């Protein structure tokens, strides 16, 4: 006898669509605010009407299910409108990385098969530079916030605000298959052409629900809740700003969108609106804390999850001293992205600050629905001793199923039925993960693995160092040796011998393995970053090797 659920003929088969995240919080919190810089404040009720108007505006110019609508904008209420309106009409939202090179931008626009591009005036020069290389037939919508407008070169369907003003505030979003593709964006910091990552409605809904549960369930630490005030510090073109705008809207909380990232504006918004929850990469947090204006900013209410790159212990301590409730998280473009969080228990929050910093800066424990393993080269789980390193492989219902139009790399990504992250990590007895490196960044000295991240943490403690990145350099005797690229602080009394002495002392004390003493040091004026603020080790290898 079958145990399959019997389907009642008239029952509603509830598809997991983004529109299911859209209605209830707007009905329950219609007067909650969404803020854009110091320029605009609207209620959820007005924002919902704007989403409906955008849907009507897009369909009026011929957008249908299966079309792709691209956005080039700063972090704004408009971007949030596109997060919903575009996929809810059955189209695909392509969040264009505005920091890509012209060649890469041309590639992603063509590869994603963009039908419509919504473009802020600030990015018109980028489009102008590639105008002749973009395939014919695309339509353009202008977001006019001032600036130079190339009206003679682009035939715009209209200006964003005027098109919304002329459109109806009502739209009946249809049901369709929950496995319909909702979003596409492109990975950064890789060799070769960017890879297209895509997610369905079902995946985005499940990621939203799973991450919401993780952020709201912990008793005292690292929480996001209905009393929160949210401001993203990760670009909205990058992995849906880690999916947190969907969570913020789902919870019906106050949201603050900062536009272009300018330290003075970010600090002003943090202070004025008493922001309580954000997320960013370490370089952004470091930039804010080093800004002189931050001395006047009250960070005591601010919770900030750090991802995209390893959160160092020293940055964690600096943030804690400023009153920031900081903790690490982990994910990648292909994972939607959140996989784990380093939230502390009440007991752990009673530990000394240094011990807390060790816990907060870890990759953390898996969130609900995410299965994470750390395996050796034979695919066996490594011991939970927090020492033995292996590759992180994952499963979750919201992981991308592959790379767009790239079967070869998709199969490699999912080899053996687990997604391969290429991140090297250890796991402790409580299941907390600690990333030690990327597989491509691990330095193999005489056949032994040496973590570039652990060496960077040691060198960064030297008071004369502003930034540091460690890469593997070819060596006839050892195969590879560590090469430390160091940016001295302005006016610092910097000596290479002091860096070498610090590393040797760390080897003698057992912090670093003995292979670290093979290190060489190279001064630099700056450390190149990817478009999302991570250290670009691909560019470092090209420049210094």
- Computed over alpha carbons, the radius of gyration is 24 Å
**Mean pLDDT rating:** 92
Shape: globular
Q: What's the number of structural domains? A: 3
What is the level 1 CATH name of the largest domain? Answer: Alpha Beta
Q: What keyword list fits this structure?
A:
Rossmann fold, alpha/beta, GMP Synthetase, Chain A, domain 3, 3 domains, 25 strands, 545 residues, seven-stranded mixed beta sheet, 30% helix
Please provide a written account of the structure.
- The protein is α/β, with parallel strands linked by helices and 545 residues long.
- The protein folds into 3 domains: 18-199, 3-Layer(aba) Sandwich (Rossmann fold); 200-438, Rossmann fold, CATH 3.40.50.12780; 443-544, GMP Synthetase, Chain A, domain 3, CATH 3.30.300.30.
- Helices cover 30% and strands 23% of the residues.
- The strands form 6 sheets. It has a 7-stranded mixed sheet with strand order 7-6-5-3-4-8-9. A 5-stranded mixed sheet has the order 12-13-14-15-16, with helices on both faces. Strands 2-1-11-10 form a 4-stranded mixed sheet.
- It starts with 22 loop residues before the first helix and ends with a helix.
List the helices and strands and how they pair.
Blueprint: H1 23-28, E1 33-36, E2 40-43, H2 44-60, E3 68-72, H3 77-88, E4 92-95, H4 102-112, E5 116-120, H5 124-130, E6 139-143, E7 156-159, H6 160-166, E8 181-186, E9 196-200, H7 201-217, E10 229-230, H8 239-242, H9 244-251, E11 254-257, H10 263-272, E12 277-280, H11 282-290, E13 303-306, H12 313-321, E14 325-331, E15 338-341, H13 353-360, E16 365-366, E17 371-375, E18 390-395, H14 407-413, E19 419-427, E20 433-438, E21 443-445, E22 448-450, H15 452-460, E23 465-475, E24 479-488, H16 496-508, E25 520-523, H17 537-544
Parallel strand pairs: 1-11, 3-4, 3-5, 4-8, 5-6, 6-7, 10-11, 12-13, 13-14, 24-25
Antiparallel strand pairs: 1-2, 8-9, 14-15, 15-16, 17-18, 18-19, 19-20, 21-22, 23-24
